[in-house]
Amino acid sequence: MFGLFKAKKQTIVSPADGDVVDLSEVPDQVFSEKMAGDGIALIPRSNTFVAPIAGVVSKIFSTNHAYSIKAKNGLEVLVHIGLETVALKGEGFKRLVEEGKKVTIGTPIISADLEYIQLEGKNIITPIVLNHDKELILEIQNVRTVREGESLLEVTLK
Fold this sequence. Notes:
By secondary structure, the chain is mainly beta. It has helices at 29-32, 114-119; strands spanning 9-13, 18-21, 38-44, 48-50, 55-60, 66-70, 76-80, 93-95, 102-103, 108-112, 126-131, 136-140, 145-146, 151-157. It has one domain (8-157): Glucose Permease (Domain IIA), CATH 2.70.70. Helices cover 6% and strands 41% of the residues. The strands form 3 sheets. Strands 9-5-6-7-11-3-2-13 form an 8-stranded antiparallel β-sheet, with no helix packed on it. A 3-stranded antiparallel β-sheet has the order 1-14-12, with no helix packed on it. A hairpin with a 5-residue loop joins strand 5 and strand 6.
């Protein structure tokens, strides 16, 4: 009974294989200054991006360069593949599910041709930002390289 009001932690897993970097290192002010939300970034090394949490696909941008998943508790995780990739108008990206679909951790969401994206002069760094109506406390895992599905951070809703 006393644990009823205890804040619960939620694990956010990596949506792809890659190297973890601090959000402050993303060369885009919207992300580095946390205007879009707090989180972490990944330099991806694999072309398939998966659901970092279980929930519903709440948004896939028309150009397929970004998507968000919303959990039952209201936590929303946005995965933004690359910087200024909206300018590619969907080239190099393939949608694997549709908005509104219920997904589990690890469900493939987007396939991205990272080589093509880089050849087009775009940075492939992928910000992963979190939003919720409540205050979020993030515990970033002390990892530098991750595999898809490995823990990136833990979130506590206050």
